[in-house]
UniProtKB/TrEMBL annotation:
One function term, GO molecular function aspect: rRNA primary transcript binding
Swiss-Prot/TrEMBL GO biological process terms: maturation of 5.8S rRNA; maturation of LSU-rRNA
Keywords of the record: Ribosome biogenesis, rRNA processing
Region (Disordered): 1-22, 49-77
Protein name: Ribosome production factor 1
Ranges of compositional bias, category Basic and acidic residues: 65-74
Function field: May be required for ribosome biogenesis.
Domain Brix intervals: 119-302
Family annotation (Pfam families): Brix
Gene: Rpf1
Organism: Chunga burmeisteri
C-alpha cells in the first residue's frame, strides 16, 4: 500500500480516474505499515469512513428485518457496559427493608424529611480565595435557596461550626481550591454531622457553558437523585436532599440533578419547558461540577480525632473497575 499499489491508489491525486466510493482493503492490510505520514493519515480516515458505512448498513438491515418480523422479532441485545456488569454489593438498599426505614426515621436528617427544620446553608471558602472560587460560591448560592456566602478570614473550621450552630445554620459547605481552581468540597450537616469530604473537578461557571439559559430565578428547585443505591450512597443522597427546601415550586421549572455514575457525582442545574405532551426542552443554567467522595465522617468536621464511617482507599478499593460503592 505504501508504493501506490494499495486499494485506494494515487490515480485521483495524479489527475487519473476518480477513486471508487467503496474501498476494498486486503485482509492483512495495516495502516501502520505506510511510511508516509500524510498518506497514512489519509488512508486511516478512509478506513474509518468505510467502517462507519458498514456499521450503518448493518444497523439499517437489522431494523428492516425487525420491521418485517413485527411482533415475532427477537428482543434487542443489551450491550455490555461497566454499569450493567457491576459487581453485586451486599449493602444495596431495598426500599421495603424495615431496618433501612427505621434508620431513616432516626438519623440526623429525619427532622428535615419530617419537615421540622428548614434548611439554612452557610457557604464559605478556604483562606484567601481567588476570583474563580469566589464566583463559583456566588453562583452556587443562587442554586441553593436560603444559602449565605461568607469568607473565612483566617478562621479555623472548628471555630466556625459553633458560630453556625448558634445562628441556626443547618449545613456548612466549604469550597477548597488549589492553584486558583476549586478542587474540594466539604459538606457538614449541623449540629451533629455527618461530614462528607469530596474531591471536585470539571467546574464550569455560567459564562463557560454553551447555549446556557437566563439567570436562575428565586424559585425553590426540584431535586433529582440518580443511582444512589447502597447504604453509603443513600446517606450521601440524603445529605444532598437536605440542602434544598422540601417543597419545590414547580412554577419555576428549575431542577437540580445529582447523578451518580461509577461513583462520580455529576451536578447539573436546568430549566425545563413543556413543548408538547411528550416532548420537554431543557436549558442548562449552571454552574456544573463533578464530585468524588473521599471520606464520610461521623459528627462535625474533626480531621484529627474524628471517627470515620468510610474512607476511600485507592489501592484497596479500586482493584476492580466493576466495583462501585455508592
Amino acid at each position: 500500500a505504501g508504493d501506490g499499489s494499495g486499494p485506494v491508489g494515487s490515480a485521483a491525486e495524479d489527475g487519473g480516474p476518480p477513486v471508487p466510493e467503496r474501498v476494498l482493503f486486503p485482509p492483512t492490510f495495516s495502516v501502520s505499515e505506510i511510511k508516509n505520514k500524510q498518506r497514512r493519515h489519509f488512508m486511516f480516515l478512509r478506513w474509518k469512513q468505510q467502517q462507519r458505512k458498514e456499521k450503518l448498513a448493518a444497523k439499517k438491515k437489522r431494523r428492516k428485518e425487525r420491521e418485517a418480523l413485527g411482533d415475532k422479532a427477537p428482543p434487542k441485545a443489551i450491550p455490555k457496559t461497566i454499569e450493567n456488569q457491576r459487581v453485586y454489593d451486599e449493602t444495596t438498599v431495598d426500599p421495603n427493608d424495615e431496618e433501612v426505614a427505621f434508620d431513616e426515621a432516626t438519623d440526623e436528617f429525619a427532622p428535615y424529611f419530617n419537615r421540622q427544620t428548614v434548611p439554612k446553608i452557610l457557604i464559605t471558602t478556604s483562606d484567601r480565595p481567588r476570583g474563580r472560587t469566589v464566583r463559583f460560591c456566588e453562583q452556587l448560592s443562587t442554586v441553593i435557596p436560603n444559602s449565605h456566602v461568607y469568607y473565612r478570614r483566617g478562621l479555623a473550621l472548628k471555630r466556625i461550626i459553633p458560630q453556625c450552630i448558634a445562628r441556626d445554620f443547618t449545613d456548612l459547605i466549604v469550597i477548597n481550591e488549589d492553584r486558583k481552581i476549586p478542587n474540594g468540597l466539604v459538606l457538614s450537616h449541623l449540629p451533629d454531622g455527618p461530614t462528607a469530604h469530596f474531591r471536585m473537578s470539571s467546574v464550569r461557571l455560567r459564562k463557560e457553558i454553551k447555549r446556557k439559559g437566563k439567570e436562575p430565578t428565586e424559585h425553590v428547585p426540584e431535586v433529582i437523585l440518580n443511582n444512589f443505591t447502597t447504604r453509603l450512597g443513600h446517606s450521601i443522597g440524603r445529605m444532598f436532599a437536605s440542602l434544598f427546601p422540601h417543597d419545590p415550586q414547580f412554577i419555576g421549572r428549575q431542577v437540580a440533578t445529582f447523578h451518580n455514575q461509577r461513583d462520580y457525582i455529576f451536578f447539573r442545574f436546568h430549566r425545563y419547558i413543556f413543548k408538547s405532551e411528550k416532548k420537554v426542552g431543557i436549558q442548562e443554567l449552571g454552574p456544573r461540577f463533578t464530585l468524588k467522595l473521599r471520606s464520610l465522617q461521623k459528627g462535625t468536621f474533626d480531621s484529627k480525632f474524628g471517627e470515620y464511617e468510610w474512607i476511600h482507599k485507592r489501592r484497596e478499593m479500586d482493584t476492580s473497575r466493576r466495583k462501585f460503592h455508592l
